Amino acid sequence: MRRNCRFGCAYRAWLCPKLTDTVSGVLAQRRYDRILAAVRADGPVEVRALADLLDVSEATIRRDLNRMQRSGLIKRVRGGAALGTASEPPYAQVASRDHVDKDAIAMAAAGLVHDGDVVLLDIGTTVHGLATRLHGRSVTVVTSSLAVYDELAADDAVELILLGGAVRRNYRSLVGFLTEHALREIHAERLFLGTSGIRPDGTVLDTTTVEVPVKQAMLRAVDEVVLLADPGKFPGSGLARVCGPEDVDVLVCRAPDDDPTVAVFDDAGCRVVRA
């Protein structure tokens, strides 16, 4: 039960550390989004200008920039920040990497799809690989991925539902409140979820914060969550938390048998399928 506190913010922060951490994380993610928007629009931006823009201290901006640099979103330059080469790689560039691993994972994931299923497909190149193996299947596919849509649009056997939203052209996905609203109106048996990286404690990450609310809405719309992860995701980079290992029902991966992160998923009750 939620109770009002009359002893001030400091006491509430002590009493509800998880709530405080959640609010702090949301505010940080909003700053990261605005910082990325600024460097994309204007090129290199000084710390002082970012502090004025976001109405926070320069020390806060420096901490944000250091964290964003570690995730590859930006690169530090003298007095400020510039766009990092890994901030949002083009879809075609990502699709050209790690073919063997992604193909094996996609094939194993396809074996989890049954005729008559309603499946929700996330964005990402490994998930797109799964879509290529659904041709001719009597399934319903719901997706926010334009790449998946293009793959299956001409296949009369597949009932295809494309979620609405704002288009991220560089990564061929749909995002925003329209996408999230559409996800509240559907239910699917299974979500095939992509990730930019997994922390050693099993935290599933995404590099682009605008995708995170969509992914979290997908988690709430399904009975079962299947996470697809190639070896490069153990550990991988990422800025924002999508979910924890306890939220994943099946992990399809090509990690080594003794990988400690995979053991975390196993301990959390997740079924591990090695492709």
Short summary:
This protein is of the alpha/beta class.
Walk me through the structure:
The protein has 275 residues and is an alpha/beta fold. The chain has two domains: 9-83, Arc Repressor Mutant, subunit A; 92-274, Translation initiation factor eif-2b, domain 2 (Rossmann fold, 3-Layer(aba) Sandwich). Helices cover 40% and strands 21% of the residues. The protein has eleven helices and 15 strands. It has helices at 9-15, 17-42, 47-54, 58-70, 91-95, 99-110, 125-132, 146-152, 177-184, 212-220, 260-267; strands at residues 45-46, 74-77, 80-83, 118-121, 140-143, 159-162, 166-168, 173-175, 188-193, 197-198, 204-206, 222-229, 240-243, 250-253, 271-274. Strand 10 (197-198) and strand 11 form a beta hairpin. Helix 3 crosses helix 4 (58-70), helix 7 (125-132) runs parallel beside helix 8 (146-152) and helix 9 packs parallel to helix 10 (212-220). The radius of gyration is 20 Å and the shape is globular. The protein starts with 8 loop residues before the first helix and ends with a strand. Residues 1-21 have low confidence and may be disordered.
Taken from the alpha-carbon principal axes, the silhouette is: globular
Instruction: Give the domain tally.
Output: 2
- What is the overall number of helices? 11
How far from one another are the termini? Answer: 45 Å
